[in-house]
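Before any further analysis, we paired sequence with structure tokens, yielding the entry below:
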Amino acid sequence: MADWTCAHFNMVSVPVYHTSMQRQISYILHHAECKVVFVSTKELAQKLVPLKHDLPALQYIILMEDTGFDDKWILPFSELLKTGDKEMDRSKISMQEIADKIQPDDLWSIIYTSGTSGVPKGVMLSHFNIAANIQQTQALANFKRNKRWLSFLPLSHSLERDHLFVQLLDRWRDLLRGKHRQSGGKHERGQTAVHDRCAPPS
């Protein structure tokens, strides 16, 4: 969810394995100059707190659990949603207008190597790179629609991200087609729309 949201707003996502050692996490977050980190549990957030003084760019940790923290820079996801609602009411720009500005060569994500032979190295992937991966994954695997998926790779794994994007894109296209018909073909402010830069190239 956070990954796709970053892509839609043209913000660069950097996946990190939750099993990584603190020095590896610190290096990646510092090298990529990450400003916000999403974590699933309070334990993972606590793992990052000691690293804060070495990460000058880091401004917030978003905790998916609805758990409070004394540190004001660690926010529960529910608080982020409230802030987003206020911003959407204030802003005059629709999500579709934001998406329309994204170009195929814009940077989508930086994936770092494991660092077993030295410091981790970042691989820069554009929107077109990810779109091509989605297209080829579906073409080779030929996933069936309306079937259950068994996923066992961590979400930070490049192949697991591909599979997730294939599922999301497939479902969201169906949902958006239905909303598009209901609205008479018009996009309304605040309506989520999959921009064509994320769609597999034809």
